[in-house]
Specification:
The complex is a heterodimer of chains A (578) and B (367). Chain A has 578 residues and is an all-alpha fold. Chain A has 28 helices and no strands. In chain B, the strands form four sheets. A six-stranded mixed β-sheet of chain B has the order 7-8-9-3-10-11, with helices on both faces. Chain B has a five-stranded antiparallel β-sheet with strand order 2-1-4-5-6, covered by helices on one side. In chain B, a hairpin with a 4-residue loop joins strand 17 and strand 18.
Amino acid sequence: MTDSVGRLAPLPALAPRLDLKWLVIGVAVALVVWLALVPLVFLLWQSFLTPQTAAEPARYTLENFRTAYLSSDNARLFTNSLQFAVGAAVLSLVVGTSLAWMNERTNTPFKTLFFALAIIPLVIPGILFTVAWILLGSPKIGLLNLGLQKLFDTDAVFVNVYTMAGMIWIDGLHYSPVAFLLMSAAFRSMDPALEEQAAMSGASILQIARRITLPLAWPAALGALLILFVRAIESFEVPALLGLPVGIHVYTSSIYQAIHQYPSEIGLAAAYAVTLLLITSLGTYWQSRLSRQGGRFSTVTGKGFRPRTIDLGRWRYLTATIFIVYFVVIVLLPFLVLVWSSLQKFYSAPSWAALRRVSLDSYRAVLDHPQFANTVWNSVVLALGTAITVMLVSAVIAWIVVRTKVPGRWLLDNLASLPLVFPGLVLGLAIMVCYLYVDIGVYGTLWIIFIAYVTRFLPYGMRYSSASMLQIHKELEESAAMSGASWSMTFRRVVLPLLKPGLLAGFIYVMIVSVRELSSSILLYSPGTEVVSIMIWELWQNGQYVELSALGVMLIVALFVLVLLAQLAGRRFGIAET
Amino acid sequence: MGLLSVRSLFTEYANEGGGAVKAVQNVSFEVPEGKLFTLLGPSGCGKTTTLRSIAGLERPSAGDIEVAGRLVYSSEQGIFVAPNKRNFGMVFQSYAIWPHMNVFQNAAFPLEVRGLAKTEVRERVMRVLQAVALDDLLERDATKLSGGQQQRLALARALVMEPQILLLDEPLSNLDAKLRDRMRSELKRLQRDLNLTTVYVTHDQSEALALSHEIAVMNEGRIVQIGTPRQIYEQPADRFVADFVGMTNFIGGTVTALANGRCVVSSAMGEIKAHASEGVRKDAAVIVSVRPEDVELSEAPPAADDRDNVCKGTIDAKDFLGDYLDFRVKVGDVVLLAKAHPSLRTPTGDSIYLRMKADKCVVISSR
């Protein structure tokens, strides 16, 4: 009797107690698995099913993949998609790299101002940028055509955006700031001593560029190209607005069409989506391998140095002009054309007659629109909810990944970043299918859009959170524990406040991308749960261009204010780490 | 028995290749109440791991850690008290001053998490900040403190909760040389005044010698020698301790005679009368360790009794270092390092007499 008690006694002390830390870690893991993996499984499963009709239940089939791969259209679809994505990525990279080089490596005047301006295009939602360029470059109503026709007194069509080249031009231009930012960082972190050493060895400027600068920038450029390629092949707005009307199909627009035809072919859409997912996964995998290998080429020294700039002499006026032209083409023209169109009652080209008809009626019409208040409310609630959820969840995950020694934490990190490979449309489709079958009452509500946004933007949140977490010295937390603070107290009083600048920046970024989001929402919204980007889409489908322009102008201004707030907040709450 | 006792501590962790790194092996020591105990050793010797195990920031794989009769860790009984429940104060190498709080908030944190009343928090924080002379900087942002002020704030934060023991992880290593000396004596005064049981980790032998009641020298995860600063310096247990703690001359040889804790070693520079440490056997191959300052130089033959070693050598090189001179003296094939007063002006190449007291020549087994 006493013997058995004596043997049992030490056991309770060994059993791990359930404390808050483990509960939080468990919930985070379960949440990430649910968000990132479950819809993927449903998508795969759905791609092997026939359409479900009233007469016939769904059954297993390979027909979807047969249609997707073996039909005669497939080759065209595949080459179109690649052509579009490669074209747009290369255009972005060439434009972005040239601008980055001029900005970082030359003495072009006003370049600090330019750096601030170059980021503005990222604020303009893709659908508005596309619509603006249609108003500029459409063969019938495009202002560029009308202007040139008037100038040369002819009927010839000079510019036509309803072509593959037009699609590449608009999409490539819209994302050139991404290339600009990536390549600026690469140029900035390059140790100028490497180039100076080459100069001391007797190399000319051209030889230095060819033998030293380019090989050093090459891994960064290839990485940027892959990022841009993946992004372009996911692009929905441009192919849908420009490609579909003239029959230039790519994967994203085909997925959309397969769902929106009658009867809708969800299985076929899923098969296309699986294919697209394979391409984006390959691209992302290659890019991440490249950036890991990049350690070999590491150009970041961590030393504070002032990069030497090249004196361009009189050529700097040319580079300054290029900057101005770029800004006009990418920001001023699209925005002004939207402003002009928003001031008209019916869309018409600028003329003295039209100028006399300028009015604010379209703004009034948008504000009086029966859906308007509800739509804005939906967008605001979704943006706030998504940003709060994403930043909280990613802060906890980043903490687990960076700080703890929980086994399998690398898996958690990868899972949380997995949604990066989901094109918005594919994610929308997967989530739609998932919650059609798992009926927990979210289908057709704002919740399903919320789930899609959280999944889609979790990787962005992770990036902000891990980066700030890595900057916090481990001992700052340990000293809180030594002071007697429990885990939750330490997280609340020390970790979160220190993460605040990073979390706030991430919060505003996630809000901006949530408001802009279209490609996931378009498969998930129902009457009553429209968001602003969907309202723009519907106005476009109805041909209400002036109302669309008015709504667009208001949206761009609102997003711009958000960006200003973000930069202000970054300065206000920035803590100097010493 | 000590206030803190660490018994047979082992710590292992997996390295990146999946193999086990034996960070700490069979480490045991006792720290009596009110004493300052130092873990001294080169980086990677396991001293910080040992300290963090006492703190509870790291979980050892085996052993016991007991403080004032309370087991805070025991592998056998499955006890592991979380660091926030141990009530030990700690000063980290980086000081870990929270940059989002001011001086007062940093120091008040340990009391606030214990749920103390506002007035009591204020009173105790003021008292401890006064002790470290930071009471006029209450509202100062933590990021605007100098290195020395940060160090004192970290100390205040560790002391404010009146910890059972104080753990210091290389607290002076981030300061510049002059400030380090000042903070060292201030730390010593505070520790002695408050009678705080303290474990101190450092790789700097002069810090360890100046501050400690007792020192444990660690190497490759094990404690090599425990003793008072004088014992460690004057009677190093092995070659590693002699070499790590201060400069020394090593002379190889064989024990030819052994009696009453004294022995005679035959070496390349002749016979050396020396102090025999434990475990020295006759005919064993040994090393004799002599500190440079114990090699006395003179131009005239020195007075010597039968406990002194006297021999003649030639000056090979000398360096003037201000407060003393470094001589390299060749005796036979052996080159000895000697410290001498700057008044000794014998030129290089001349011959010179050396005297080494037998007590200062320590015989170490040469394995």
